[in-house]
Amino acid sequence: MVTEPVRILVVGGGYVGMYTALCLQRKLKPELKRGEVEIVVISPDPYMTYQPFLPEAAAGSISPRHVVVPLRRVLGACRVIVGEVQSIDHAKRTASFTTLATAEEGTGALDIAYDELVLAPGSVSRTLPVPGLADHGIGFKTVEEAIGLRNHVIEQMDIASSTRDPAVRDAALTFVFVGGGYAGVEALGELEDMARYASRYYHNVKAEDMKWILVEASGRILPEVGAEMGKYTVSQLRKRNIDVRLETRLDTCEDRVAVLSDGARFPTRTVVWTAGVKPHPLLAATDLPLNERGRLKCTAELAVDGAPHAWGAGDAAAVPDVTAGEPGKECAPNAQHAVRQAKVLGENITASLRQQSLQEYAHKYVGSVASLGLHKGVAHVYGRKLRGYPAWFMHRVYHLSRVPTVNRKSRVLAEWVLSGLFKREIVSLGSLEHPRAEFELAAGGERPKES
Question: Which residue numbers delimit the FAD/NAD(P)-binding domain (predicted)?
Fold first, then answer.
């Protein structure tokens, strides 16, 4: 008798999705060769983004293509589908998804059956109903947003350099970042560093002409590195003339004017929103159990609680922290846990298929590192607190060890060495966002307006 292979469906190609599929194709190599198992990965993008490197990509220290890992190259034993899962009916073991081809064909969503489900769609930016945010805000969660922001900052410096209107110049040189977590602080630190360096090549734009503002609703920034390192970070940013406003919110950014809850008003053409994330909307389109925050209810073995053959980890999952002394505490939704959870998840799915016992995920949080720009950083690791160059160096070493594949490690290291030997690149390639603009203009169209 010919039996159908066991199909493992991995939804999402981020940290958890890619690392789980990587572990599965290694652990289930005999079964894959015999055709007893099939691994299918559905991801909106054909690559995994190593997000801790986004600030350095925005600053030009790393090439954008080296921040991403192509899924098809890494997951050679898996079937990779570039598409978006729209809904999941776990009771029937089916998922509905769309691809670029379905839109062209007009066939609507397709269905795929599965035996084991790994749900790891990640998270999306958490936005608030701030007037003007949807029209003028810039996110910082994808490599496209990071490179777009770099181009945008340099373009604002070009506008300031060429305008005769003081109001336009002031707005162009004012940069507002909302959110004092990793993404906001690291993005601001790297871009301010880059813009200050670039200003030496402008005859009429100086570093002190630019206004950099960090807005945080709570009373501290970078809570992951501890209160002491958070205060140190604030002091260091303020020494660089960065306006850090704690316990302050963005009320509106309509008409390109950022109005804060403390009454301050800043005409600006740049509002970067990094104020947290929320679970992916796909989770609400499933019949799987969710907690009050909209994340998957998972066991310590990374199985979805009460849903056999469904698994979860990373940002989308509420995983009990068995190393914590207090009951009910969950693992933080960060990369440190996601990468380690993916390894345990792959091993547990393999053990489940082979009818072996499962292991609990247990990892004690060891600390955090953050970059504040070139040769500047903070770290709180294993109880030790570092600042300045040692923390920045630790940040680079740690993330170089974590970025997947030897290929990517080598390329990133080579770029760091070259950037240390030669000057920074300060070229804006904003035209990449409108590749047909010149041809459309030549053919009688209109040039797209600058954002």
Answer: 7-342
